[in-house]
Amino acid sequence: MTHPSDTRAYFFKIDTTIKKIRNALQKQFNDAGFDLTVDQWVVIDHLFRNPGISQNTISEMTTKDAPTVTRIIDLLSQKGLTERRMADNDRRKFLVYLTPAGEAKHQEVLPVVSAMRRKGWGNLSEEDYQHFVRIMDSIYTNVSE
């Protein structure tokens, strides 16, 4: 017997929605002259909320591979937005922090990101959000097992 999900291309719907959001957000960044990619923003946002985390932790949080995260952090460091500091308890490990310029960039970009989130959510309700999170969490768990 065919399962109902066999004929529904929900992964395609998720993927195209994510791409649409990323492209729209990147256009907003470019139009505002932020000199950031969406991936760089994601790392900056995680560092703002979790200062002094390792590159491995950033990889896990962003679901990006280690070489990609290293490249992003290198670029952000070249822009003066992040810095690596040796961990106090392990001299082989580096922790990543936003610089004051990185914190200022976060504050500059956040209103644009927030506006895009509001636009994307439109007139959907809190109940819609709870259903959305439940469904996405279920899909995530199902494909993680």
TrEMBL record:
Pfam families: MarR_2. Residues 11-141 form the HTH marR-type domain. Keywords: DNA-binding, Transcription, Transcription regulation. This is MarR family winged helix-turn-helix transcriptional regulator. It comes from Spirosoma soli. InterPro entries: HTH_MarR-typ, WH-like_DNA-bd_sf, WH_DNA-bd_sf.
